[in-house]
Amino acid sequence: MPEYFATVARGLETLAAAELQRLGAEQVTPDFCGVGFQGDRRLLYRTNLWARIPSHILQVLTRFPCANAEQLYQGIQTVDWSEYLRPNRTFAVNATGKTPALNHSHFTALQVKNAIVDGQQDRFGERSSIDITEPDLRINIHLHDDHCTLTLDSSGTSLHRRGYRPAMGKAPLKETLAAALIHLSAWTPDLAFFDPLCGSGTLPLEAALIGLNIAPGSFRDRFGFETWLDFDLDLWNQLLEESEAGERDSLQAFIGGSDRDPDIVEQARANAHFSSLDSHLSFACRELADVEAPADRGVVICNPPYGTRMGDRQELGQFYKLLGDVLKQRFKGWKAYVLSGNKELAMFIGLKSSKRMPVNNGSLACQLLEYELY
């Protein structure tokens, strides 16, 4: 059975593993910044279409010893590339990791490229071209402990690029992280969902996709596997039809957000309109001090600014205090979750957290703080 590897943000491996199991993956094994699993071609397509947390779904071709450039070259040439690449198709190589002898990713990628095109020249008398923007085949090389893992990227561009968000505010959350935060909150579609600092709307948009059972990949123009030589168009169309047939017509509870910046709120509304979710979501331009709970119970999730300059601390401290006051006074009966990238600022919230979950926002180590509001 084909072997795959889903890349995920650090700290989300267990969460992604549970999601992949729900989608039908077998032999699921969480690893560092990823999850190994097995399944057929249908599962490969399905995980790209439905998985909300992974960034890329890679198909493992082979592993081999790789202590130096010569072993890398020879290992790549043991693959029958005619199964995956023809001279009239383009490709790109991405290299990660290193060994003592192969410690420069550009050189590693160049060595892989040379091994592939040299083999093509010998066999066909012509070779594929490189296209780093939209190649027909994305090849990944990972070096670790004098071994090489060779994979094909079935996703193409990162899966966090859902395709529904043309407008983005400052420092937007990646869609994959937003989905992970929602899963960590244990929110269910029968509960109201609200983000009082919604920015361009990523958290409410992701919650709406879950609530309406809409596949996150249904907005994308293309996946990497669609230009593979063995692409099964009939199977892919079947999965798309099944996905569309399973969508819900309406939400069970309120989902929305607010922000003080009218331009940012318009971006959130534009994203909702672009994804045909505008009739389901509510976005309001509102100061944090004026925010009211939209229902008797539900889940609040927000991502306040972390403060990158020393002068921010006092002003943001007051902002965090206001956030805590609003949650305590206006959201009784709710659960609140705050993504904090600054422990000192989080103390200004003035509420005792019932849980602290480590989460990485890009390269920044954060905590998702849970507050039960009585």
TrEMBL record:
<protein>
    <submittedName>
        <fullName>RNA methyltransferase</fullName>
    </submittedName>
</protein>
<dbReference type="InterPro" id="IPR053943">
    <property type="entry name" value="RlmKL-like_Mtase_CS"/>
</dbReference>
<keyword id="KW-0489">Methyltransferase</keyword>
<dbReference type="InterPro" id="IPR054170">
    <property type="entry name" value="RlmL_1st"/>
</dbReference>
<dbReference type="InterPro" id="IPR029063">
    <property type="entry name" value="SAM-dependent_MTases_sf"/>
</dbReference>
<dbReference type="InterPro" id="IPR002052">
    <property type="entry name" value="DNA_methylase_N6_adenine_CS"/>
</dbReference>
<dbReference type="Pfam" id="PF22020">
    <property type="entry name" value="RlmL_1st"/>
</dbReference>
<dbReference type="Pfam" id="PF02926">
    <property type="entry name" value="THUMP"/>
</dbReference>
<dbReference type="InterPro" id="IPR004114">
    <property type="entry name" value="THUMP_dom"/>
</dbReference>
<dbReference type="GO" id="GO:0008990">
    <property type="term" value="F:rRNA (guanine-N2-)-methyltransferase activity"/>
</dbReference>
<keyword id="KW-0694">RNA-binding</keyword>
<dbReference type="GO" id="GO:0070043">
    <property type="term" value="F:rRNA (guanine-N7-)-methyltransferase activity"/>
</dbReference>
<keyword id="KW-0808">Transferase</keyword>
<dbReference type="InterPro" id="IPR000241">
    <property type="entry name" value="RlmKL-like_Mtase"/>
</dbReference>
<dbReference type="GO" id="GO:0003723">
    <property type="term" value="F:RNA binding"/>
</dbReference>
<dbReference type="Pfam" id="PF01170">
    <property type="entry name" value="UPF0020"/>
</dbReference>
<feature type="domain" description="THUMP">
    <location>
        <begin position="43"/>
        <end position="154"/>
    </location>
</feature>
